[in-house]
């Protein structure tokens, strides 16, 4: 425990309260913990919004005077009210003073989710905010989210759109790289020009120059008429090159030469032409790692990496999952004209317990599938639809079948195997230490906070091992 003023938890309770189990839960989290009495809180209330206040009063000793004081105080930090009150009617009148409430006892996972949500919303509030109008613009472009990680991405998108430099977008499959590219274009000064998307992986190597630069009639046997290249089609607009990591060595040389001065020569043409456009590229792999492995040209990487936007995977955006799920539900209500369909009550727990390797695209497919297979008007996203049980079983052993057909680059396959190793190692370590994070972190040679982040990354609940 610590009295640090860094981002953490401030636990407010009266003296002599028996809350050892609750404190044990809080101490097991990755946030610094500071314990204060109501009097201490009133006398030294922090204006630092980096804390989340947790107020614990049992139903038989609610301290009505202090609650009244909180209601009249302008707070800077979000407040979670923890009570063992069993009657909702008794509690209804007290809800207006807190940001969230929870009944004790509860599961470690539920408590962690509530605190993390408030911590993320608090961190957002402490940073320069994106204007409401910008948030609405992003929402119209199907870029929805309120998590710290995703709002950071939106800020970069907003800032990048103002300039005309090349943009490199990196993110896993299904995170929405083309949506981000479109936002960079349509929020910028070239919004009235065309947005031309190209999947580099779909263009054969021997046709790359023809597709990009076009050709004149008679340039080769089947060239029976002039054809504009993609760069000419993108004049005064944006050329978006998706899956840039699939570009061959020859294609990389061609693109590098073009980016030096935006000059090109269509096949069969004698003269060079110039074009006014912006280049935005996307990759589902780290181009820097590919440079280190000799798979991508370093000089081209530097040309492309003027402005870089990294899109976080959905597993790092817990605060966005419910928002996105509801958005997709509303979408399919309209498409299928079935406005009465709703989610099952325990939907959030089911969604948060899954790792989402396919990210937002997989979430949408899951909602779509659940909508179609729903019995009556209730959409259920249980383990059968999410395949979460099967996935967890597979992670008990490293799956080397990914190496059988070599379907992916070395970096991609290595990342998969490392992720599986981390998951197994963490679980085995928690089994050995019976869920003691401090001991497990010491054995792993990591700081306790960093070890806690790994558990969150792999959605591992230490209480399963206590």
UniProtKB/TrEMBL annotation:
<dbReference type="Pfam" id="PF00158">
    <property type="entry name" value="Sigma54_activat"/>
</dbReference>
<feature type="domain" description="Sigma-54 factor interaction">
    <location>
        <begin position="143"/>
        <end position="372"/>
    </location>
</feature>
<dbReference type="InterPro" id="IPR058031">
    <property type="entry name" value="AAA_lid_NorR"/>
</dbReference>
<keyword id="KW-0805">Transcription regulation</keyword>
<dbReference type="InterPro" id="IPR009057">
    <property type="entry name" value="Homeodomain-like_sf"/>
</dbReference>
<dbReference type="GO" id="GO:0006355">
    <property type="term" value="P:regulation of DNA-templated transcription"/>
</dbReference>
<keyword id="KW-0067">ATP-binding</keyword>
<dbReference type="Pfam" id="PF25601">
    <property type="entry name" value="AAA_lid_14"/>
</dbReference>
<dbReference type="InterPro" id="IPR027417">
    <property type="entry name" value="P-loop_NTPase"/>
</dbReference>
<dbReference type="InterPro" id="IPR003593">
    <property type="entry name" value="AAA+_ATPase"/>
</dbReference>
<dbReference type="InterPro" id="IPR025944">
    <property type="entry name" value="Sigma_54_int_dom_CS"/>
</dbReference>
<protein>
    <submittedName>
        <fullName>Response regulator of zinc sigma-54-dependent two-component system</fullName>
    </submittedName>
</protein>
<dbReference type="GO" id="GO:0005524">
    <property type="term" value="F:ATP binding"/>
</dbReference>
<keyword id="KW-0547">Nucleotide-binding</keyword>
<dbReference type="InterPro" id="IPR025662">
    <property type="entry name" value="Sigma_54_int_dom_ATP-bd_1"/>
</dbReference>
<dbReference type="InterPro" id="IPR002078">
    <property type="entry name" value="Sigma_54_int"/>
</dbReference>
<keyword id="KW-0804">Transcription</keyword>
């Amino acid at each position: 425990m610590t009295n640090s003023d860094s981002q953490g938890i401030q636990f407010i309770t009266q003296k002599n309260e028996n809350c050892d189990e609750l404190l044990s839960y809080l101490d097991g989290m990755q946030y610094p913990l500071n314990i204060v009495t109501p009097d201490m809180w009133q006398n030294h209330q922090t204006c630092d919004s980096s804390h989340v206040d947790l107020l614990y009063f049992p139903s038989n000793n609610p301290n009505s005077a202090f609650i009244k004081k909180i209601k009249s105080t302008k707070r800077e930090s979000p407040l979670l009210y923890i009570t063992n009150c069993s009657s909702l009617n008794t509690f209804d009148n007290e809800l207006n003073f807190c940001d969230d409430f929870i009944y004790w006892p509860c599961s470690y996972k539920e408590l962690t989710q509530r605190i993390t949500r408030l911590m993320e919303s608090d961190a957002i509030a402490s940073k320069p905010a994106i204007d409401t109008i910008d948030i609405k613009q992003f929402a119209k472009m199907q870029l929805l989210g309120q998590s710290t990680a995703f709002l950071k991405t939106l800020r970069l998108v907003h800032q990048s759109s103002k300039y005309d430099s090349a943009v490199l977008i990196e993110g896993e499959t299904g995170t929405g790289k083309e949506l981000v590219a479109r936002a960079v274009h349509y929020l910028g000064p070239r919004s009235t020009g065309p947005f031309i998307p190209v999947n580099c992986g779909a263009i054969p190597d021997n046709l790359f120059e023809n597709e990009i630069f076009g050709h004149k009639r008679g340039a080769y046997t089947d060239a029976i008429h002039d054809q504009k290249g993609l760069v000419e089609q993108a004049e005064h607009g944006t050329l978006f090159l998706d899956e840039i990591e699939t570009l061959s060595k020859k294609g990389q040389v061609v693109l590098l030469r073009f980016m030096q001065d935006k000059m090109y020569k269509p096949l069969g043409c004698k003269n060079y032409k110039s074009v006014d456009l912006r280049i935005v590229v996307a990759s589902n792999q780290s181009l820097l790692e590919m440079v280190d492995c000799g798979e991508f040209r370093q000089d081209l990487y530097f040309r492309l990496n003027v402005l870089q936007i990294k899109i976080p995977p959905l597993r790092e955006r817990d605060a966005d999952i419910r928002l996105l799920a509801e958005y997709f539900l509303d979408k399919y209500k309209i498409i299928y004209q079935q406005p009465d369909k709703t989610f099952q009550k325990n939907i959030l727990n089911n969604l948060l317990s899954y790792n989402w390797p396919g990210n937002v695209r997989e979430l949408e497919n899951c909602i779509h599938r659940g909508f179609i297979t729903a019995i009556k008007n209730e959409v259920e996203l249980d383990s059968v639809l999410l395949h979460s049980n099967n996935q967890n079983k597979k992670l008990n052993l490293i799956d080397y079948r990914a190496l059988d057909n070599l379907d992916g680059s070395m970096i991609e396959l290595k990342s998969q195997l490392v992720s599986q190793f981390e998951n197994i190692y963490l679980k085995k370590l928690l089994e050995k230490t019976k869920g003691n994070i401090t001991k497990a972190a010491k054995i792993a040679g990591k700081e306790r906070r960093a070890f806690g982040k790994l558990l969150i990354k792999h959605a591992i609940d230490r209480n399963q091992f206590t």
